[in-house]
Amino acid sequence: MRFDGKVGVVTGGGSGIGRATAIGFAQRGGSVVIAEFNQEAAAKVVAEITREGGKAAAIRTDVSKPSDLQAAIDFARSRFGRLDFLHNNAFAMPPHWRPSRVGEIRDEAWEHTLNVGLTACFRAMKYAVPVMSEQKSGAIVNTASISGLFADYGVAAYNTIKAGLINLTRAFALEYGPLGIRANCVCPGVIDTPLIGSGGTDPETRKRIESKIPLGRLGRPEDIANVVLFLASDLAAFVTGAAYVADGGQTAHTGIPPIIPSESQAPSHR
Ligand SMILES: NC(=O)c1ccc[n+]([C@@H]2O[C@H](COP(=O)([O-])OP(=O)(O)OC[C@H]3O[C@@H](n4cnc5c(N)ncnc54)[C@H](O)[C@@H]3O)[C@@H](O)[C@H]2O)c1
Predict the structure, then answer these.
(1) pTM over cut 0.85
(2) What is the C-alpha separation between 40 and 36, in angstroms, rounded?
């Protein structure tokens, strides 16, 4: 899998899944723009890539601002000449966020979640269209979640944006497939990044989560980046409109408790 001569924009590329994707894309010959809120983190990733001989640049981007997203796409073109890959990935929970039931979600928290996690992805896709249409090629990968396929307790707004993102991606795939632009989602399970700590995930909760994952561990950012890069690559030339699950087997289970006694301890029941 190589990306020589290809140019990508990764939103939220300063940490976690986005960072791993940006590094993986550059290691395979691509030039990457890190469109990131946290300038210090972005600069570190750029330094890490360029130290190893890769090509990368950062632009300060708040994905909730339309002009910042447009500037990131324009920057990729002016700096590296084209746009082949867009990874819509940035997300952060609203300030002072805590899990809460639907009846208790603050309006501002709902709006923040929708803006950063869904509307921003719509806008970035919209701004990528003219460039990718002109090139008659392009691959968009949106970071959705297993939380967009099923629901969780206390995170209804998050469930909503990720479900919306999966269907936005399908609609886009239908409309732009004929123009040579593919769009897919990756649906990670629980991945060991700073994001999962932001909800106050203590060691005990972490253990409980691990006990529900057949592979027995949380995912690593690289586990997801590898799927993103496959979807971005020519190896996935016939894949569009898909939602690829990478969750260590967590959602393979219906939730019915084990009926074989020897498996009653198995880390498989949701
Ligand atoms: N970690 C998980 O368990 C998990 C599971 C499923 C899906 N996801 C999704 O993966 C994506 C990446 O999350 P992660 O776990 O790598 O988190 P992370 O916190 O490690 O990285 C997110 C990055 O996005 C940046 N960011 C946040 N708000 C931004 C904004 N408004 N504009 C620009 N950049 C912004 C942050 O600065 C950070 O660098 C998110 O879309 C998240 O919903 C994560």
Answers:
(1) yes
(2) 9
